[in-house]
Amino acid sequence: GSAGGKLVGFEGSDAMFAHLGWTESVMKVIGVVEILVTLLALIPQTAFVGTILLTAYLGGATATHARVGDPWFFPIIMGVIAWVAFGLRFPDRLRPALGMRA
Predict the structure, then answer these.
(1) Do residues 41 and 86 lie in contact, with contact meaning Cβ atoms separated by under 8 Å?
(2) Is it the case that residue 99 has pLDDT exceeding 90?
(3) What is the model's pLDDT at position 1?
(4) Average pLDDT in the 66-81 region?
(5) Which of 37, 39, 49 is nearest to 90 (CA)?
(6) Taking 70 as the threshold, does the pLDDT of residue 13 lie above it?
(7) Who's near 49: CB < 8 A, 6+ residues apart?
(8) What is the spatial distance between Cα 66 and Cα 73, in angstroms, rounded to a whole number?
(9) What's the CA gap between 81 and 87, in Å, rounded?
(10) Which DSSP letter does residue 21 get?
(11) d(CA 12, CA 88)
(12) Which region among 2-6, 39-43, 65-69 has the lowest average model confidence (pLDDT)?
């Protein structure tokens, strides 16, 4: 997936990372962050905070792509999907966070 390419690299990854304004070493750190926030979002006890952090991560991805003129909407779509998934998994935890009755 996305994190794997950041950690292992692939043919042309250095040029792609440079296009985005990042070095390969920074992309490895970003890949680790991506894995950590995704794991937090998957663990029931940390899912709410993990989904918030995943949303923040995807906001950075959106900003990076918008800054270089690449399509920027895919990370936003992924963020919406993450929150829909959270709401389907934990409807009793999402409603109060949105100010709705449980």
Answers:
(1) yes
(2) no
(3) 60
(4) 97
(5) 49
(6) yes
(7) 40
(8) 9
(9) 10
(10) T
(11) 38
(12) 2-6
CB 46 within 8 A of CB 40: yes
Are 26 and 71 contacting, i.e. CB atoms less than 8 angstroms apart?
no
Q: What is the mean pLDDT of the chain?
A: 92
Say which residues have a Cβ less than 8 Å from residue 14's Cβ, sequence separation at least 6.
Answer: 24
Q: Average the pLDDT over 36-58 and give the result.
A: 97
Distance CA 22, CA 90 (A): 36
Contact 45, 33 (CB under 8 A): no
Cα(52)–Cα(38) distance, integer angstroms: 10
Integer-rounded Cα radius of gyration of the chain: 15
Tell me the C-alpha distance between 72 and 40, whole Å: 24
Predicted confidence (pLDDT) at residue 94 exceeds the cutoff of 90: no
| Residue type at 42 in one-letter notation | L
User: If we measure between CA atoms, which residue out of 91, 88, 63, 84 comes closest to residue 75?
Assistant: 63
Q: CA-to-CA distance for 68 and 64, rounded, in angstroms?
A: 7
pLDDT greater at residue 19 or residue 94: 19
